[in-house]
Amino acid sequence: MRAAAVVAIALAWGAVVPLHAQGWRHVGNVDAVQVRDDGVELASGAARVRVTAFADGVFRVRLAPDGAFKADASWAVVAAPAKVPVRVDDGAARVTVTAGDVVATVHKSPLRVEFADAGGRVLLADAADQPMAWMPEADGRTRVRAWKQLPADEHFYGLGDKAGPLDRRGRAFTNWNTDAYAWAGWTDPLYKSIPFYLGLRGGVAYGVFLDNTWRSSFDFGLESPERAAFGADGGELDYYFIAGPQPARVVERYTALTGRTPLPPMWALGFQQSRYTYLPEARVRDVADTLRARRIPSDAIYLDIGYQQGNAPFTVDRKLFPNFEQMIADLRAQGLRTVLITDLHIPNSRGKDYAPYATGTAQDVFIKMPDGSPYVGEVWPGPSVFPDFSLTRVRDWWGGLYRDFAAMGAAGYWNDMNEPSVFRAPGNTMALDAVHRLDDGRSVSHRELHNAYGMLNARATYEGLRKIKPDERPFVLTRAAYAGTQRYAATWTGDNTASWHHLAQGTPNALSMGLSGYTLVGDDVGGFIGSPSPELLTRWFELGAFNPVFRNHAATDTRDHEAWVDGEAHESRRRAAVERRYRLMPYLYTLAEQNARNGAPILRPVFYEYPSAENFYANSRDFLFGADLFVAPVVDDALDAHVVNLPPGEWYAFGTSTRQAAGKEPIKLDPRPTGAPLYARAGALVPMQPLVQHTGETPDGPLQLHAYLPAPGSTAPCAGSLYQDDGTSFDHEGGEFLRMAFACEAGRSKTTITARVEHDGFAPWWQDIDVVVRGTARAPRGVRIDGRAVDGWSFDAATGALTVRVPVAKREWRVEIAH
What we know:
alpha+beta; globular; 54 strands; disordered N terminus; Immunoglobulin-like; eight-stranded antiparallel sheet; TIM Barrel; 13 helices; single chain
């Protein structure tokens, strides 16, 4: 009876209801059209739908089943609506809203929305037989959902940190932040909820962001090969359509909407050593001494929960760490920052002598149950209470707790267990009816705010550190996240295992995070759970050296994971991987600044730069490190040849003059390479530096600019850039930074390489630049700098590298090489 009644109601609204969609109340025909300055509002029975232009290339769609739109608030969206010129054409069968190069068409019978480009190519369209819908639940919630047409050649990416292949097509996913210990390639959900995806078909991309913190779900053709769908268990159907046509343009617009990652401190891009747990103090010092003695470049050591007294956040076990402050200072003198874990659960059994509990209770900061009693859950320190980060005053209280650690010299903070994870509780998380209070006086259930809780924890930490040390860039690492968390913290992929499976899985997860606006991500190098074989650990160092966050971490019951544990041969390969990263630091730091400026991820799938390269649409192994370097890592223990297919264009084996074009026979590396195969784009100008042991050490020698020349007559762009500042403060926001642009022209008789200072607000560590040119067949007939012949160059016939030193190079200069 109930199903039949629901079908009858839906049909009365003008919807065609397939059997698998029974229970949903679909919008019906359009009864009225109200033209707005930014688009249209449509009436369909009691329901209202708004289709509005939010920004250039961005439309917003909202559904109000009862006709009343909720207050316009978002934890994720930070951009204000822009005044976009809009033209509305209302016809008998449809109404169109044109804004720039995007046309939104609303079909009237029944109400269906589609988006197309100016040429009429449909990018995203509601399924013909399934308009958007809602379903009231007995507990007062209303589920919401939209179904979309699914072209046979469409591919889907994103949703942040999700397991499995990079392409999401043919699978369905749930967003519900979960402590997914020992997760695998088929595990879902995981620790983060980023309800954004990117669609790609025939080289043309678009994005969809569902701004809803409730448990949400996305189906990319699993239920039906003809439909994709997304929706949530409560809240509004409120989503943004984001036009491209390039993937890069979609990501740029999405990150403009939800915010971008602030430029991190440079040390956070260095190698980070961690373990659960380094105990006691002497062990921490020994690890630091060994890193320096064995010349493993590194910038940070992490302290997991064992440094605390009884696992209580913001405490120090003085029996294990009697000289805690001095240890931090001594590590800093060695060029090593200290990162401290500070979980969010506050034990309620330590009494008034425990300041976080005492002050938190006095200020009424902890989450409560509907009856007004504190919510209590058991975590590492035992029964604990949890801050209500949805309140500004609670975030301010939490941020102030870092004052003592900051005074001790700690440099970074690690917010773990913030899904939140709760032991021996339903769903291993907080009670869904726990109450969060909002600044406007309203209250919402944890069911609604669960996916944003970790984000608000990271926000409280970041904003607190900005107040405590306003001249120092914070470093925060979070495990749980929602869309927009990239504004506050770096992240990692959680509790992986020491397996080849997880080595391979790290790349699609990181690529997906970057496409979802979150570039500062890594995984636990070596695997958190279990003990990797020597070869697996070495391969992980070789791949992990390209992670934006490069951290070696292991559980307490595993064998040691440090670089030196398996003998000289493995140590040498691991050291070489770390050293390569430090030599590339000028290039990596430039990428980090680009990400902060326009959202471009550091790790990129090949189609990000080459949208028409369909042979890479399903590639989950290989990736671009910025636009100019291509990585084809070894991620399995097979002993056969390692096969590499290059992206479009021509590529050099990195550090050599060997150039090969894509499209020919795949490269077969046999015997297997002893490092991660790395290639440089022909036309890349890559800034590098002499080796250092940490980012605070001044390199000994000039900056290096490695020029990989395109073939004469090639149309490939020949360009590069360099960004530098002091690496620690916010002075760059006031203009204290250096930005240089490099370009080249390669001809048969002459090659020209030029530099231009685009912004001169910072004095770098270097004076001169060594230009290392690859792609010349023989020693040049002559070299000129700024029109004057010079003799200060060298040519290595064995490697085909020409090196030219440009003196006092922070200026406009020109190098001419006669062939």
